[in-house]
Amino acid sequence: MLQEFTLSQGKAMINFTMKYCDTKQKLLNSHGFRRFIESFIKEVIKKDEVVIYEHYISNFDSEDELINSLIDVLKLLTVFNTNEVIEVDSKYAIFFKDKDLFIEVTELMFTYWMKLERYAFVTNNHVGDGLQNVRFIQANSMFNELILATGRRVQQTVNGHPNRIFRQATAGAMAGLTLNNINWNCPVEYKGLASIPFISKVVIQPPFIAYTKKNTRDGIFQEHKENPLQNIVLNDEDWIVFPLKVGQMLTFVYFHKDYMVHGITLANLFEIALEDEYIGKKPDMIYVFGYPDGIQEKRAFYYKDKKNDIMIGYANYCDDIDYFGYMKKMLLTLHNVKQIDNGRLPIHGAMVNIVLKNGKEANIIIMGDSGAGKSESLEAFRTLNESYIRHMRTIFDDMGYLVKEKDGTIKAYGTEIGAFVRVDDLDPSYAYAQLDKGVYTNMDRVNARVTIPISTYEVISRGYPVDYFLYANNYNEADKKILIYDNLDEAIKVFEAGARKAKGTTTEKGLVKSYFANPFGPVQEQEQTEKLVRSYFKDMRDAGVKIGEMHTSLAIEGRAKDGPREAAEELFSLIND
């Protein structure tokens, strides 16, 4: 079980099950508060505010005595005024010799706390809607108010008058999790994973903004010939497992607590599985993210456990994987490789169901690798909504797959309920409108991202016929934005080339190619995918699907906004004909 409180790598973990503070005195007397003050003195005052540190430390015999005294003073200030505090012990007078300086220290303390990633947990020994589950949201809200009230009380006492401005910041946990101890159908090779608690509920306090050590992804995931998880043992102090549905595949994502932001972000991207879908069940996929194997270099690969029919993903503990792309794209790779083995065709693209104002309807897939213009095209559709569209439903934003149904028809399905998109490529009003539900990362850096829910599991898993299947060309200008191919071989050549101009979402630069515009499965399983492409494309053509190119102009200087919009307008005109 997780400890009462831990603070490391800029992340504060608060275990409400072991210790819940509902009064100021409980809060200030807690182990967690002491641990926070110790870190605050070391990381802020001693390192960045040397003048303040020297002003106070000169009055105490040691740093420990300074920490103890600061904590004692904060506790006393919730009950007594400053003169009464000094009467308790004259050594506390140094804190009030310059009251403005002490207020500055409390402001620095609050700022430091707010910069930490803060997570709260409740752990149950069994599944149910017991007291801990039912009251968790309320407890999290009350904890938030307690921190604000404690800070305000201290400052008001020192100032000698009530505060006149109140800012209701999210001072408690940025996110909360309820965890359950679950028994699942665990093959003997994975017994070392069996004790890790499962996430059953997630509470996110918006706006959720975090920073990671990396903001781009590099390379592709290759198949490993040996099972990286066989006989490893995970410590339940450091690990959590998220049971998800990637597409329709049950997936257990084990992540190290130092990568909490990536685990939390999964809640906006994939459907969380229900308890009866995984208790006593064997998953289709397992991903262990952040395993400390002692190797400093990045190790991220997958393994086909044919004996147990489980796809295994692995990423070791290192700074290079500290980017959500390594979480999302590995899961999609596992999913796609398994789908290819099942005779289904993964599509790296976006799909929308559009009903125009004249009543005409179309299901459109826009395919392309990272930065080709998939999400931007959806954004263009959305901004043109009032002019052309009566109704628009996003089926998938980044990855889907085609299935040949039993009746011979081809339908498309989505793998994700959310989108992991660049903030710069969204209309500002839309980007800010997501503050109440988006998970934002690296907001002041290149490739700033937001992960937002955009659909429901019922929608993405319904299955849709395809009317238009278009390749997103982001590097060529063309007078005609939509080109429909008569020659199927020519079309397949364009789709399989997977050309695009890199736009900064990965470490690639210039005009690059990846087979079928999809380095997350088709590249690794190219021989199998080539057969599927020819079979599916022929069947789509015979069914009347229009296959072609959509020139988004996204990577052409000055055309990032107008290019997708012009292509969308032309597509709407084509649907109207």
SSE arrangement:
Layout: E1 5-8, E2 11-15, H1 24-29, H2 31-48, H3 50-57, H4 63-77, H5 82-88, H6 94-97, H7 99-115, E3 117-124, H8 131-134, H9 136-159, E4 175-180, E5 198-204, E6 208-210, E7 222-223, E8 239-246, E9 249-256, H10 260-269, E10 271-272, H11 275-278, E11 285-291, E12 300-305, E13 310-316, H12 324-341, E14 345-356, E15 361-367, H13 374-383, H14 385-388, E16 389-396, E17 399-404, E18 410-414, E19 418-422, H15 428-433, E20 439-441, E21 449-453, H16 457-460, E22 464-465, E23 468-473, E24 482-484, H17 488-497, E25 499-501, E26 511-513, H18 526-542, E27 546-551, H19 562-576
CATH architecture of the largest domain: Alpha-Beta Complex
What's the mean pLDDT score? 91
Over the alpha carbons, how many angstroms does the gyration radius reach? 27 Å
Structural class: alpha/beta
From the 3D structure, determine the CATH topology of the largest domain. Phosphoenolpyruvate Carboxykinase, domain 3
Question: What is the number of strand segments?
Answer: 27
The level-1 CATH class of the largest domain: Alpha Beta
